[in-house]
Fold these 3 entries.
Entry 1:
Amino acid sequence: MATDIQQTPFIKQLAANDRPTRDAALHSLRAFLSAKRSLPDLELLKLWKGLFYCLWMSDRPKPQAALAQELANLVSVLPSPSEKIAFLNAFWKTMQREWTNIDVLRMEKFLLVVRRYLAATFEVMRDEGWEEGVVGEVIKTLEGCPCEVEDVRVPNGLRFHVIDIYVDELERVTVLEEGSEAPVEVLLEPLRKLAKGSPNKVVRTKAKEALADERLPGNKKIETEEKGDEDGWGGIQD
């Protein structure tokens, strides 16, 4: 029996040559996703293949940036945390599968959509009040891809980019603001695992650098204390 997604023209229309057709398909898809229905993982992967090529076909920086944000906004219309996490998982698996096929001329817009989706990933946890079960499932998704430690199927280029923007996007979704109830130490665990266990030296180095970012709790304080100790040293007085 065909599933709902197979009965829609979304897949082909999302990858259409003309922008009006792609825009109309995306608008219809938004309404489709907001309805109370669950899609199997395989159907979500098919859907994300269409969304991947929707961005692939997009030209010019401003429309590309707008589309990257619109794709990330799809997460928020899904009716439940479990469906949001499944949708995120399909996105990350699609990026893993397609990353090495992206040419240099198209890479910039895919770097941007990854940035937007990392923020959306954090927002799912924030919007659920950092509920422990949701946080655990989202972190599990990140650790499966793009922050998986050893799997050679995850391109290091994708890992590098996510590590580079990880703290930026934590800051973007107000995780690092004073008074935030976010479990920052838990959110940093994917980076810690990469820093400790990756067989790739560059990945380990980048992860350690991200963990040392002065915007993270504790890092700036330590730096200030060290500076204070230095300023307070007046040498041996005669």
Entry 2:
Amino acid sequence: TGEDCIAESEADIDVLLEMGFGKCTLSVQGPRGEHLKAGCLAGRRIVTSYPKLAQKFFAALEEPGKPTQIKCISGSVEAAIGLGLADGIVDLVETGTTMREAGLEEVAV
């Protein structure tokens, strides 16, 4: 993590040097095999460690009067769908192994 934490904090910083490591992407994920689009998760239950970034993403997709219910947790975010706590998640992905093992697939990056 790094750029994701800065974006979530909304800090105004100047990047002096890109370090060239840390190849994670922040992605919207849903249950594998449902072939969801990001808009299908707008207005539903989303769990993430990045609530501000998730809210910004889903705000443009929401229908009037149907806000996305975003809950912030730390730890194993990918377990939230299997536990029935969420319909989708927003989480960091590097290789995708943990995502696939949890039965999830990327819906948007």
Entry 3:
Amino acid sequence: MDLELVFLCALTFVIHLISTLAFAVRISGVRTRRIAISFSLFNVLVLVSRIANSFQGPFLAKRIEENIHAGLGQDMLSDFRWLLASAALATLVGAVLIPTFQRLFSSAVVHFQNHRSVPSLIGYAIRNSDWDGLKEMARLPTREILVGMKQSREVPLRVIAMNIGVSALWTIGVLASLYAGFINPDVRMTSSNLSAIINGVATIMMYVFVDPHMSLMTDDVMDNRMTEARFRRGIAWLVASRFVGTLLAQVLLVPATLLIVYVAERM
């Protein structure tokens, strides 16, 4: 693994870590009863993810171009495998960090509500980023959550299955379109713009099946129709299914790539 690939893996890690931590935002919103503020503040981190995303595509495309011109084909699939492994690792790390992050984020929400200033919040975070404070906030996922997941699913099996599919497809969408350009360089410009074939399906599944259910769960907690403990178990199932989806992405990468090549060749 060369330095450029390490950099690409790091970008992928950041993107998927932030996406996983988004689940903690719902927990923070429920605990602080400030759903809108929670999602608004999380957009600051989303900006970091999008910046990483904006660098990942061009750098990976450049790497593919160099391999095409050099006639090197045997190592590109392994590059994409490493990127997908980084996504899975980031999801796993994010899952472990959710209890800590939701406590830190809840503190940020309360501070923002009192001071109503993002720059003030950033300054507060910098001033209070000492090791002792982090240790006080740090928590690992509890055994009760894992035991509770076995006892009660809280999320319908179809939603879990959909979330696995969504996570897998979103993980490979852009990567498959770029890899398709490497498989058939003659249509690489067309292929690079066909990620919507994969991401479009994932988007429909997400916003028709998965996201409405998560929103209902959130509203049920706010209206006291669901306990926070049950809500956290539901989030745990969604995080676990996201991780499974990133693993499934390893299996779907090549079929998705060949599908994009097939479509690109016939356009």
